[in-house]
Amino acid sequence: MNFQLTEEHLAVQAAARDFAQNDLLPGVIERDTKEIFPEEQVKKMGQLGFMGMMVDPKYNGGGMDTISYILAMEEISKVDASASVCMSVNNSLVCWGLDKYGTEAQKEKYLSRLATGEIIGAFCLSEPEAGSDATSQRTTAEDKGDYYLINGTKNWITNGKSASVYLVIAHTNKDKGHKGINAFIVERGMEGFVVGKKEEKMGIRGSDTHSLMFQDVKVPKENRIGEDGFGFNFAMATLNGGRIGIAAQALGIASGAYELALKYSKERKAFGKEISQHQGIAFKLADMATQIEAARLLCLKAAWLKDNKQDFSLAGAMAKLYASQVAMDTTVEAVQVHGGYGYVKEYHVERLMRDAKITQIYEGTSEIQKIVISRSILK
Ligand code: CAA
Ligand code: FAD
Fold first, then answer.
1. Which entry of 127, 333, 350, 363 is annotated as an active-site residue?
2. Per residue in 162-219, pLDDT tens?
3. Where is the Acyl-CoA dehydrogenase/oxidase C-terminal domain (predicted)?
4. I need a surface site. Which of 84, 128, 358, 372 has the fewest CB within 10 A?
């Protein structure tokens, strides 16, 4: 067993860290306060190769492994989780799915531009009445011969307004249950496709979360992903990898908060000494460091299994379940270490605390991860 990162991994990590410090940190508080999507920063992420990290270089991707991806996700999430969720959706839910299951024509037309960040993508599974219970969705895709007619509403879609390409999951044949579900590539601008209202959120306020409406949207048959009826399996397979990305996002939020708390605890004095010298604070730092390390190892294990073509769904669910709890615990304690200063925006930890919560909700809530884990260990 080798815990050593390679030269390439260290280089990716350093590049992501520099980018986060130089390009994301300066405006992050304003973007959070005013709910501004980090458009320029996302463009630069594309130029630096962070938007299609694992995509085959034949389609302009980075050809990197999942370990590189989670190292970059961690560094970027330490500073700006709104930018990192955009990155995560594009990399692991949109690019990965197209790279693995798309046709040659779909890859040439869409993937090659998504992988460079020239355009960005969105993944549209959730609906107003169907989130965790994803098979009970109501959006329909009627087979009309050489095209499908899509009708319905999707909710909570990340990159909802900024995306150009949307992977939309819809029922073609309700009688067949999840085997009647298909996945489609829908382009922004297709007639009948409307971007709905933007959600005003507790955290990741820079990310654009929208509802989407589809009214008789004609989608050509060649835009279906995989065989007829493959859509639900496509969504699940894609989410398995996505969950590693969100686990890494949670890890980054936690380690970002920990680093700030560690630094502050060595600067702030109370009762004649640095607060880090009070055991009550030192023990908090010890707990944070230990939990973060455990979360990092779970993320790396899941990424390693994926890179080595082994089943990673259990490991990915465990990584997301645990890392998201660590993100919550660590950010709450980081605010505590900062005292009153932790409660104001300038010190960043209050934002990280608000951002942490979403990692327990999207890409499968913590309860859903426990379903995935328990089904796997009980089967
Ligand atoms: N990996 C691969 N396949 C899976 C799977 C997994 N983790 N989980 C289920 N499947 C497959 C099953 O094998 C089955 O396929 P077959 O019949 O071909 O064998 C099929 O999916 C149906 O499985 P179930 O009968 O177990 O389905 P279910 O209705 O009981 O639900 C569930 C299973 C795990 C709860 C699933 O509905 C689920 O994951 N829900 C959560 C949805 C979710 O994560 N949404 C995220 C939206 S995207 C997002 O959130 C992005 C963002 O924020 C940034
Ligand atoms: P529900 O499914 O209604 O769950 C409510 C509660 O009940 C939760 O605590 C849940 O864990 C619990 N619960 C449900 N079923 C069970 C069960 N069987 N056992 C135990 N507990 C259960 N979706 C997308 O498709 N694409 C996106 O890009 C996207 N981005 C998002 C961004 C944000 C900011 C948010 C808030 C959500 C996003 N989502 C996206 C949706 C997200 O995936 C769902 O919110 C999530 O899957 C939960 O679904 P729900 O909100 O309908 O909650």
1. 363
2. 999 999 999 999 999 999 999 999 999 999 999 999 999 999 999 999 999 999 999 9
3. 231-378
4. 128
**What whole-number distance in Å separates Cα of residue 165 and Cα of residue 168?**
9
Alpha-carbon dihedral 373, 121, 129, 317, rounded to 10 degrees: 10
Global pTM value: 0.98
Beta strands 121-124 and 165-171, pairing class: parallel
Distance CA 106, CA 222 (A): 8
Q: pLDDT digit string (tens) for 78-132?
A: 999 999 999 999 999 999 999 999 999 999 999 999 999 999 999 999 999 999 9
The DSSP symbol for 128 reads T
Nearest 5 degrees, angle CA 374-CA 378-CA 379?
120
Q: Is 85 in the pocket of ligand 1 (CB under 6 A)?
A: yes
Position in ligand 2 atom list of the atom nearest CA 361:
46
Torsion sign, CA atoms 211, 214, 220, 226: positive
